[in-house]
Inverse folding.
């Protein structure tokens, strides 16, 4: 993973980076940094490429990566399938070699569409002076853009500027791959992007209908009408022949008995096993594609290589159980559980006062459980989930990290860091989720022990997240409401909408927030093979 930055000056003026933005990029990629500048002839444009790398695969490879003929690549991605990558190889080198051999746009599209895994990239193609950039089908890696009339900027993350000088950063839509002819930009003095959309998606020019396109720029379909082959199969819209008992009574509360009945049916066990097999492979790819260990290092390490955003819910429990199958038992796994301080209920205060008032009486019948400011629902389910995992594999050290956040620290870090990472998204929900994910990914908390609490800070670079499970498996309460009102057809429409907008609502934000700690988010539920089931 890395923080990538590209700035194209149409006037040939030297590019300048904002100091704060540069700091955010460096936090994403603390292991190496490099700049490369390309200048048009004769000094018609000036293009700065800057990358900051977090070493995750094979041997450390500094970016931007420039080949022998002058092509420049910045790759913020992971190849988990589709293209062969040996354990000792770095996937940036693999992609660079593939792209360097391409002479036609169709060949570049074939390389990119073959990649299974998250990516965001910027690629300068020397032959023809072309600039390519874009995000994967789901938008699992952040890439922002803005244009101020003379300068086009692309970046993984940006700093929010207070109004009225608020910058007009927007997320590059994960609608396809974009291409700009720098010679044409020089000739016309304007920026027109050609898009190569994903096949199966209906492209409508976002210039007029979508505010994500920078003001002063335009987007048109590429002249050849080329498309990127879709990395996933079309959504399964087939309906069951008849509803089961739970579906016949959608107002009833689901029970263990409903699940047992579901598994007894003839078709479902095979479907469940198939899903678990594919999801298990998706987890394996993401927990075993790690930096090479030094040859002189001990095979038994005190630090975990993998952490999981862990609420104890079914999505994070499944990830933990599957990760347990693919990570050697002598290696710990960090379970990151965040809780924000809650106020003591009024009734609790009154009970405490009453006990103090009658302290000389035998008040055993009046005792109330001790109140904990951080025993929020996710903390309680997380502890219950930990117990199940310990029973599942008692040999493994499960580091259940209780991350307790006070209101004072929340306000401080929200203003200093998190608001910039969530930007350009700006809803209350974005702020709420962004704060929770940022503190969880930081991994700084305590581990409960018999003697008390031990301070702990997770050093795992890989963080598994359950994002994508609810969107595909109808995990939100609104999905039950839609099913009650519109049946299976309505539910399928709702899930299709959820998946189509996940790139603009969730993934870029979470990549920016988790990447701020020099860690990489990985999304097993959004593995191409899992989504294609």
């Amino acid at each position: 993973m890395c923080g990538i930055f590209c700035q194209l000056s149409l006037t040939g003026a030297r590019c300048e980076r904002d100091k704060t933005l540069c700091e955010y990029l460096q936090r994403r990629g603390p292991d190496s940094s490099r700049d490369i500048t390309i200048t048009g002839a004769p000094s018609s444009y000036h293009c700065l490429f800057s990358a900051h790398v977090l070493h995750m695969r094979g041997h450390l490879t500094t970016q931007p990566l420039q080949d022998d003929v002058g092509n420049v690549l910045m790759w913020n991605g992971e190849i988990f399938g589709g293209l062969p990558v040996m354990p000792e190889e770095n996937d940036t080198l693999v992609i660079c070699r593939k792209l360097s051999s391409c002479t036609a746009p169709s060949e570049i599209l074939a390389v990119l569409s073959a990649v299974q895994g998250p990516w965001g990239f910027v690629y300068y193609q020397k032959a023809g002076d072309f600039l390519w950039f874009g995000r994967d089908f789901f938008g699992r890696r952040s890439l922002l853009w803005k244009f101020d009339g003379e300068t086009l900027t692309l970046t993984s993350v940006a700093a929010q500027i207070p109004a009225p000088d608020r910058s007009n950063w927007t997320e590059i839509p994960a609608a396809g791959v974009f291409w700009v002819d720098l010679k044409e930009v020089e000739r016309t003095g304007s920026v027109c992007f050609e898009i190569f959309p994903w096949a199966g998606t209906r492209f409508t020019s976002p210039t007029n209908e979508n505010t994500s396109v920078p003001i002063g720029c335009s987007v048109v379909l590429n002249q050849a009408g080329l498309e990127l082959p879709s990395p996933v199969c079309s959504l399964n819209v087939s309906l069951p022949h008849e509803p089961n008992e739970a579906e016949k009574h959608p107002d009833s509360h689901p029970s263990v008995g409903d699940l047992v009945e579901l598994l007894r049916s003839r078709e479902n066990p095979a479907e469940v096993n198939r899903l678990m097999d594919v999801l298990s492979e998706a987890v394996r790819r993401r927990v075993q594609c790690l930096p090479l260990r030094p040859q002189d290092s001990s095979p038994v390490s005190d630090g975990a290589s993998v952490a999981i955003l862990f609420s104890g819910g079914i999505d994070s429990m499944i990830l933990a159980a599957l990760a347990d199958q693919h990570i050697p038992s002598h290696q710990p796994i960090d379970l990151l559980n965040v809780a924000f301080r809650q106020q003591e209920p009024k009734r609790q205060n009154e009970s405490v006062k009453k006990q103090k008032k009658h302290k000389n009486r035998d008040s055993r019948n009046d005792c109330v459980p001790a109140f904990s400011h951080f025993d929020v629902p996710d903390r309680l389910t997380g502890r219950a989930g930990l117990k199940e995992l310990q029973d599942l594999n008692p040999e493994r050290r499960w580091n259940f990290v209780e991350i307790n956040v006070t209101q004072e620290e929340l306000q401080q870090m929200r203003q200093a860091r998190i608001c910039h990472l969530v930007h350009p998204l700006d809803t209350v929900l974005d702020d709420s989720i962004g704060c929770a994910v940022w503190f969880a990914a930081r991994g700084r908390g305590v581990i409960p022990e018999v003697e008390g609490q031990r301070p702990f800070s997770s050093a795992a670079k890989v963080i598994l997240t359950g994002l994508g499970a609810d969107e595909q498996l109808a995990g939100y309460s609104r999905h039950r409401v839609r099913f009650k009102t519109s049946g299976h057809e309505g539910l399928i429409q709702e899930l299709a909408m959820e998946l189509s907008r996940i790139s603009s609502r969730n993934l870029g934000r979470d990549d920016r927030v988790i990447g701020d700690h020099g860690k990489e988010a990985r999304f097993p539920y959004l593995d191409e093979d899992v989504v294609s089931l």
In short: The chain has 17 helices and 20 strands. The longest helix spans residues 477-500. The radius of gyration is 25 Å. The first strand starts at residue 2 and ends at 9.
